Amino acid sequence: MSLFWVLIIIAIVFTFALYHDIHARRVLKGSAETRYRPDQFFLYGVIFFAPFVILFYKDAFWQNLPQLIPLYVYIFLLLDIAEKKNGYSYGMGETCLGVFVQTLLTIIIYYLIIFFQSDNVVDALWPYIVFAGLLILYAIVSFMEWYKKKPSEYSTVILFFSVFISPILPLFTSQYWWSLLGSSITLMIATLYTTRRMEDVGGDRGCAQGFAIIAQVLTCIVSIVLHTILF
Fold first, then answer.
1. Angle made by CA atoms 86, 38, 41, in degrees to the nearest 5
2. Whole-angstrom distance, CA of residue 17 vs CA of residue 46
């Protein structure tokens, strides 16, 4: 399938995700807590996942990368319309920053692939190296938070980022299913550990656990669908 049609599919999926989010906000209007809704995670997941699609067309990476521009013009135009028409906030500044970070990460991964392609053994290992690096970073930050007895959001941010990228890494390995299973179990343990350290104010801990678990399930489903389509 050409990149053009893949981006068209992403645009259509985003449109339906945004429509569903607006509907959910109207239904839950006035609710005390709505920030952990899984459908909202899916909406932002579509936005932040798009740059990684270019990695499947890495033979013409720099020629394909600008094709993301029309997609994001469309996405931010719809978000702007949704904000002005319905009065909902989608954090346009933070979303733009997230897109920039994800695009930068995509470029870094592309150069990692190019760098390791000269060695077949290392080329097969680089997804595991990236995942191990994320885990080590998460472990160091979590240990520092525990040692200083001062919880912060850094470990949560790292874990949230790992939930996005980890289901994608197995697509670049020869052992897709085992890699996906191993990374999913590891992230599940890390998620339960992180959420258990949260203060349980108004049921926030339970909501966060449910949100994180559903988020991992959704990202795994996206990875499986991509594996089925592309391989």
1. 70
2. 8
